[in-house]
Specification:
Blueprint lengths: L8 H28 L2 H6 L14 H22 L4 H22 L15 H18 L2 H18 L20 H9 L15 H22 L5 H23 L11 H24 L7 H7 L2 H10 L2 H14 L3 H25 L7
Length: 365
């Protein structure tokens, strides 16, 4: 039966599944690939340099998509509690600023090398894209938001063919040196840029167009919040939503390659389709059919995702794993030992999150 509670267990489980990929499963997969001689597995857990699409490329967009799903639920809850419009807007601004500042922390702002620091970050991208999508949800009708989403896709698709004004003649407009958003980054973004100091994939310019991913998540959240539809019907709508996004994503793929760095329409719509499809699967199995026991392993992580992302910036879990397992690993082959240590580091992170979960300590931004 469908979960009637305001909070979707499937959303926490899916967030945990997604977060696990970057707090240890990626390293475990790399070690396993080295041990078993599976280069394709290693490739799927690494980002292509510029063009291409791997499984690892879906992790961050899915997290942003999930952030979008959450907002219709959190907004309805705040309205139900009588939270004023002013306070809701202040919370949105506060969350954006907190994520932006946490992003600066992970980019080593405390070293005080302000001319070298990256002002763009993964957390900044989440904060900016989510905040814009949230404000559009509050102030615009669904039809207007669909039109805005379509406009963002079309405008950004057109910009893929505009060469940066400072690029040498004949430069590919979709290359690192020739992309238009890279030129905008060089024009006004302070500090260092991630891509050879030529472009910032998580800069304010690219983030503006990446908002489409968060907005797609909002649309998915609206589908699930429909009180007049059954769980089966909602699941079907999510699947159809995913199919439609896939058609458009592959359509744009005919005129441009996938590029996570550019977060271009071919990439954002295709990965949006994946996000909608896997959310449909989790939602149907967990909240509609009611199979929930297996979700604990993922939910422990999903309810404290930002916590573990920040914690692993400061705590050397690899050292902890080597302290307890390094001796055993020394008797094994190098790839097998590395795999054991990677599993130990992941287990240490999960156990910390389990402790927080059991103590009902949830650190939110």
């Amino acid at each position: 039966m469908e979960n009637k509670s305001q909070r979707l267990l499937s959303l926490d489980a899916l967030r945990g599944f997604d977060m696990m990929m970057i707090i240890g499963i990626d390293v475990i997969a790399g070690c396993l690939a080295a041990l078993c001689g599976w280069p394709e597995l290693a490739r799927q857990f690494d980002h292509p340099e510029w063009f291409g699409l791997s499984f690892y490329d879906t992790i961050f967009p899915l997290f942003l998509f999930i952030a979008g799903i959450s907002f219709p639920f959190s907004y309805a809850k705040q309205v139900e509690k009588g939270v004023s419009s002013k306070d809701i807007h202040l919370k949105i601004l506060k969350r954006f600023l907190m994520l932006f500042l946490l992003g600066l922390v992970t980019n080593a702002i405390f070293k005080c090398h302000f001319h070298e620091i990256r002002y763009g970050s993964v957390l900044c991208k989440i904060g900016q894209c989510w905040a814009i999508a949230a404000l559009l949800y509050i102030h615009c009708s669904r039809r207007t938001r669909i039109a805005i989403s379509a406009a963002l896709v079309i405008v950004y698709a057109a910009l893929q063919f505009v060469v940066a004004p400072d690029a040498p003649p004949g430069t590919d407009p979709m290359s690192l040196e020739g992309c238009f958003v890279g030129w905008l980054d060089r024009l006004w973004m302070p500090g260092a840029l991630y891509q050879s100091n030529l472009m910032e994939p998580s800069g304010f310019n690219a983030n503006f167009f990446s908002t489409i991913t968060a907005m797609l998540g909002v649309f998915a959240g609206e589908i699930v919040r429909d009180a007049n539809a059954s769980g089966q019907k909602k699941t079907l709508r999510l699947v159809l939503f995913a199919a439609g996004l896939l058609v458009f994503g592959l359509g744009f793929r005919c005129i441009m390659p996938f590029s996570k760095r550019l977060w271009n329409p071919a990439f954002s719509l295709t990965v949006g389709a994946y996000s909608a499809a896997i959310f449909a699967l989790f939602y149907y199995v967990i909240d509609v059919l009611g199979f929930r026991r297996w979700t604990y392993f993922f939910t422990v992580v999903g309810t404290n995702a930002i916590t573990i992302y920040m914690l692993q910036q400061f705590v050397d879990f690899d050292f902890t794993s080597r302290f307890f397992l390094g001796g055993i690993a020394g008797f094994m082959s190098k790839p097998a030992g590395a795999l054991l240590v990677a599993c130990g580091a992941f287990a240490a992170k999960w156990l910390v999150l389990r402790f927080l979960y059991e103590k009902k300590v949830f650190l939110k931004v």
